[in-house]
Amino acid sequence: MKVDVVISDRSHPQWPVISDWAAERMAHRIRILDTLTNATGGDCLVMVACHEIATQATRSRYGRCFVTHASDLPEGRGWSPAIWDIVRGKGRIVLSLIEAADPVDTGAVFRKFHAPVKPTDLHGDINKTLSMLIVSALDFILQNPDARPEPQRGEPTSYRRRTPDDSRLDPHQSIASQFDLLRVCDPGRFPAFFELFGERFELIVRKSSKVPPS
Predict the structure, then answer these.
(1) First-last CA distance in the chain
(2) Is 38 helix (H, G, I), strand (E, B) or coil?
(3) What is the predicted pLDDT for the residue at 189?
């Protein structure tokens, strides 16, 4: 099977994961692309973290076109849904594998993949969980070429695109009250920060290897 997977940002944490996945599926011809411009055709197009919108002309080059979207669609259409969900207190990630369609995120659902998120999971842990679900979705595509999707059901909700300012912490509020925000901030690309005394400070959290006293 000839499969093109699109991840717009090469620094995205899913890029090395999907690259390793592709290298292990030698029975298929799999390419990882950073733009739809290079999506020249094949059996499947899969948009994992794609900032572009696949036009009908692009989609027509492939037998099937998929999108992985980290929410329980139609809830959480839009940008960075798993991050928004965790910031708002949800203790799980749902990855919806959908058909690419117009408008964006409205396509029929092939399957939903679920995993819990512990309240102590940090950015790296959350990404590992999401990676596991994405790999499961990609394997589902390879193993189920004749799968048929079902229409989305329920009341749709949407999330806006996150900006670097969404990593802002309030220095006058407790760490506990802001921990869900702190733990989802990407320490490399969008670190948590706060402003105090006219200065800006970045804050990176990691788990300690030291055993707390009993």
Answers:
(1) 55
(2) helix
(3) 84
**pTM > 0.85: yes or no:** yes
Mean pLDDT of the chain, nearest integer? 94
Q: What is the DSSP string of 127-147?
A: HHHHHHHHHHHHHHHHH-TT-
β 92-99/77-78 pair status: unpaired
Q: 111-147: buried (b, 16+ CB within 10 Å) or exposed (e) per residue?
A: bbbeeebeeebbbeebbebbbebbbebbeebeeeeee
Task: Kindly state the tokens that stand for 212.
Answer: 């707390």
Helix (H, G, I), strand (E, B) or coil at 33: strand
Strands (E), the chain: 2-7, 29-33, 42-49, 62-69, 77-78, 92-99, 109-116, 158-159, 192-196, 199-203
pLDDT at residue 124, as a whole number: 92
C-alpha triplet 183, 189, 193: angle, nearest 5°: 55
Give the model confidence (pLDDT) of 114-157 as tens digits.
999 999 999 999 999 999 999 999 999 999 999 999 999 999 99
β-bridge pairing 109-116 and 92-99: antiparallel
Q: What is the rounded CA–CA span in Å between residue 162 and residue 140?
A: 29
Percent of the chain exceeding pLDDT 70 equals 98
